[in-house]
Amino acid sequence: MRIKFLLLFSVLLLMAPFAAFAEPTSPVEELDNISDQALQMVKLQRYEDADRLLKHFSEEFLTITGDGRPFSMDELRIITVAHDEAVEAVANADMGHAERMNKVTKFRLVIDAISSTHQPLWTEMEGPIMTVFSEMKTAAFEGNNDQFHSNLNSFLSLYNVIYPSLKIDINPETIQKIDARVSFIDQYRPQVLTEASGQEELETLESDLQNIFDEMTEDEADPSLWWVIISTGSVIILTLSYVGWRKYKGDREKTKNVQKERKN
Prior knowledge:
This is Sporulation protein YpjB. The chain is mostly helical. The protein has helices spanning about 1-20, 25-45, 45-65, 75-90, 95-115, 125-140, 145-170, 170-185, 190-195, 195-215, 225-264. It has 11 helices and no strands. The longest helix has about 40 residues, at about 225-264. The relative contact order is 0.11.
């Protein structure tokens, strides 16, 4: 009997976070719930279900905005763009699963950034982003060309996922400075590898990114969000795996071409 009681108690504990989402107290929380359900469906590769949820989101969103929900013009634009990308991703059978996850995760993080009254979900990607950035910087300082490009591609993929959410939570001047540095490092990769000024840009960008995460991080996140945060972690792994796989595939094709040329 005691074992049965403990099992029942454990199940109730596990269900507690979901109960917080089961009865949203506002229309915006309902939108947040729908966006999360869509992400879970994509994670399970149930793309048709995800598509239906995204269409349902659109209907609810129109109702809320029609009732005078005070979204700013920037928020409306960011939500619309992220939603359109998510819809396109779940409907595109030619798009890989990891890329679909990235698009819908981006949308999910945008809605959370708008609705969250606690630590936004995008801050939970601090660890992977700063780790990849540190490895990229080390590769640049050591002149490791291949490792630098690989880590930079991984960083850009992760940065792209959280970028719309940053524009919601961070002031425009800060975002413009960071985005300009990211664009410079991506566009002028050879200079970053060989010139001191380029490597100084890496140092400055690393500091700017860390400041953003530090400013947004609170002591405690809403406990009901932890199950969503855990789900988001799998997206990070998929993102890095996807980038690594593309690089590996490209290197293999390059090797095959070289071997063919030698034979000829």
